[in-house]
Amino acid sequence: MSTLKQSFSWWCYANKGVEAPELLKAAARIGYAGVELIEPELWQMARDEGLTIVSVGGHASIEQGMNRPDNAARIERELHENIDRAVAFGIPNLICFSGNRDGISDVAGLDNCAQVLERVAPVAEQAGVTLIMELLNSKVDHRDYQCDHSAWGVELCQRVNSPAFKLLYDIYHMQIMEGDVIRTIGEHHTWFAHYHTAGNPGRGFIGEEQEVNYPAVVRAIEKTGYTGYIGHEFLPSGDPLQELQEAFDLCQGA
User: Quick one: which of 27, 53, 134, 211 has the most CB atoms within 10 Å?
Assistant: First the structure.
């Protein structure tokens, strides 16, 4: 039985016929330890239910990210502000984005991202907050996004060389881009501070009707000694509470 802590991304399950207080109470009752990407006005409500706010956005936006020097001053300001908010609410992770290529080479984009992170990571480290850049697919959901392969993200981590900067390894997105999920986790888990799930294709439930063997992936993550959260970010096709329960049971039973 898995002992990994589980969380869920609020945007996927909210506004699906279940009011916010009921959804938070039900998630805590199921056994979820945390919630992610939830609106600030609900942070205290989540904490009152015993849920850790595992991750929130560190800056805007997915498309206009760190890889463009024109965005650097804004992003640094937003990260500093959100580091302070994360400390106040006990939020361990702030999600970051490379931005779209829009003609910027992978080498230049990496250099630009590293320059921002090298300035901000020491502040995050002192605060006890981890900046996590999300690996997203550029094939289906986020066309032209630059941090779309594990190797690019790992190289960025090595360049920044800070315990306060890691990757958010999104299993759904990386299954689309490169597959070989279990091997990648085994080889590069040192750089992965958080994980997201969803079924592929379609970003649906993580059960047997899609191609990722999530029980095996969960076991691979556990084998690395990982002690963080695995966050569900799939789109339910029916009752969100039922599918949250089933996802929790599937992973716990791995």
Answer: 27
User: Which residues contact residue 159 at a Cβ distance below 8 angstroms, ignoring those fewer than 6 apart?
Assistant: 110, 114
Helix (H, G, I), strand (E, B) or coil at 83: helix
Choosing among 3.30.70.1560, 3.30.450.40, 1.20.1250.20, 3.20.20.150, the CATH entry for 5-252 is 3.20.20.150
DSSP character string of 177-231: HT--HHHHHHHHGGGEEEEEE--TTTS--SSTTSS--HHHHHHHHHHTT--SEEE
Question: Which of 92, 185, 102, 109 is closest to 144 using CA atoms?
Answer: 102
User: What mean pLDDT, rounded, does the chain reach?
Assistant: 98
Task: Give just the sign of the alpha carbon dihedral 228, 210, 36, 179.
Answer: positive
For the chain, the structural domain boundaries read: 5-252
* 203, amino acid identity: R
Distance CA 223, CA 229 (A): 14
Cα distances from 94 to residues 20, 82, 121, in angstroms, run 22, 8, 11
Q: How far apart are CA 54 and CA 228, in angstroms?
A: 9
Integer Cα distance of 63 and 66 in angstroms: 9
Nearest CA-CA partner of 72 in 51, 98, 90, 36: 98
Are 244 and 32 spatial neighbours (Cβ–Cβ below 8 Å)?
A: yes
pLDDT digits (tens, 9 = 90+) for 126-143: 999 999 999 999 999 999
Q: Which amino acid is at 149?
A: H
Task: Kindly give the pairing relationship between strand 34-36 and strand 229-232.
Answer: unpaired
pLDDT tens column, 157-166: 999 999 999 9
